[in-house]
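ok trying again, last paste got cut off:
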Amino acid sequence: MGELIMKPYFYLKIILDRLLAFIAIILFSPLFLLLAILIKLDSRGPVFFRQRRIGIQKKEFQILKFRTMKIEAPKNTPTHLLQNPKQYITKLGAFLRKYSLDELPQLINIFNGEMSVVGPRPALWNQYDLIAERDKYNSNAIRPGLTGWAQVNGRDELEIDVKAQFDGEYVQKMSLLFDIKIVWKTFANIFNGKGIVEGVTHKKTNIGV
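nice, full thing came through this time. structure:
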């Protein structure tokens, strides 16, 4: 992780991430409770969805999300690569995914030090091609993020090599101001619904998480 460790912001980022996650968990706790109740009323199954993801230095961790799919849905396939994802997505799940509310439990991952507010989105454990591409840019050496530079520049619409290049660019430019810019663009994209792909597209190597 050499050069990254030498950056003062690398250490500051860890402190800021946990502080922001702690504050956000407290502020959003009523929303957490409301969504948990609605999820249980909407369909059978657990409130949370856990999945193996790749974290800093390619160490695996369990990412947390609000469950948006039926319990019979495939567990290790990105939703946009399913042939007909709508058959698996619950009614409430469609709303949660549209506004990225299903990602809120990752605040717990951030508080636990497994993720960052901003960074490359954590790859699935079996997305070997994406992991290998990120190795070229040293982006597996930092904590994955709730949002990232690749996400605000295309998200699911990006092909693997392009996604990895954006992740590498983030590693090089990583700073407080750059993170603020990414978070701002993230909120703009959420309200505009940009970059979300549900189901297989025409692209051959379109991998998004």
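cool. Residues 200-208 have pLDDT under 50 and may be disordered. Residues 93 and 142 are 30 Å apart (CA to CA).
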